[in-house]
Amino acid sequence: MDDPFAVAMLAYESQTVVALRLVKLAWGGPAAQAEASQMISEKISASMEAAGSLMLGGSHDAVIARYRELVAENTKRLMSP
After folding, report:
1. Which domain holds residue 69?
2. For each of the chain's 81 residues, which pLDDT tens digit applies?
3. Which of 1, 3, 13 is nearest to 67 (CA)?
């Protein structure tokens, strides 16, 4: 891995999504159920995308950059009213 800063930022940014999701899940109800289901689907999709990328010769840095994009999308979605 050429960019340890990107790894550290991914870890930091992911904590925001974890916190936002925990709040949403704690409120319960249909929104929490939908979030839990979406979270599982996203994790499966992201791991398959990462595995495919690496199997085709993609770099670890590219996978980390893609995960950061996905985390940013989730942060934006979870913070919107």
Report:
1. 28-81
2. 678 999 999 999 999 999 999 999 999 999 999 999 999 999 999 999 999 999 999 999 999 999 999 999 999 999 997
3. 13
